[in-house]
Amino acid sequence: MRIAVLSSGGKDSSAAWWWAMCRGWDIVAIVTVEIQDGDSHMFQVPSTQWVEVQAKLAEIPWVNVAASGTVDDEIHALENALSELEIDAVVSGALRSDFQKQRLECMCQRLNIHSFSPLWHQTPIEHLSGMVKAGFEIMLTSVSCEGLDHSWLGHVLTESSLMHLHELSNKHRFNVDGEGGEYETFVLGGPIWSRSLKVEGEEQHTASRGVYTIHSVV
Question: What is the biggest distance separating any 2 CA atoms in the chain, rounded to whole angstroms?
């Protein structure tokens, strides 16, 4: 099975990537949709340019797909990029967004390839706990909900801090896995790679959101 993994560099993409590796499939490319303007209903926006470093460390080609941030343009650009690859399937980290999953599946039908979403409807805390225990170094790169203050920016989850995150999610009623956009992540290390990445960056704060902007990754 020759596949492409859709990756934003965050936790869900990395878990899907690991799942494909564990199946012994041939990962032809790591594909990132880079939003050029504004936010996206489909894909993560911050830190996606650094997926290139993750892919290089895994010795897998990286395909960067520029898109405007509208759903139609995102899917059209991604479909064009995937059509140039010799692949049998696409693997994504979709968790609970029917909007995202359905559009990826329709795109794959047009390309006559399979669409796999191995994380679909996993129990959120079990999903995160399993990743932390497996050695994934999940760094929070943005926070945008009540209950998550700026002290979480740049924090790498541990078993202890994940339990605290879970307690906060119950108290403030946000998704512990960030599926509603409460926070975003970038993965520094884990069983996919031979070593961990080191990053340098700075915090930027607004009234409703905090972002850890990564300036360099080695």
Answer: 47
DSSP notation for the chain: -EEEEE--SSHHHHHHHHHHHHTT-EEEEEEEEEE-SS--SSS--TTGGGHHHHHHHTT--EEEEEE-SSHHHHHHHHHHHHHTS--SEEE----S-HHHHHHHHHHHHHHT-EEE-TTTT--HHHHHHHHHHHT-EEEEEEE-STT--GGGTTPBP-HHHHHHHHHHHHHHT--TT-TTSSEEEEEEE-TTSSS---EEEEEEE-SS-EEEEEEEE-
Q: Would you say the CATH fold of 124-217 matches that of 2-116? A: no
| pLDDT score recorded for residue 96 | 84
pLDDT > 70: percent of the chain: 97
pTM of the model: 0.94
Q: For residue range 26-58, list pLDDT tens digits in order.
A: 999 999 998 777 666 677 776 899 999 999 999
CA dist., res. 134 & res. 92, Å (int): 19
Structure tokens at 215: 């300036």
Angle (CA) 95 97 98, round 5°:
120
CATH class of 124-217: alpha beta
The highest-level CATH class for domain 2-116 is alpha beta
What contacts 123, CB < 8 A, 6 or more positions away? none
Rg (alpha carbons) of the chain, rounded to whole number: 16
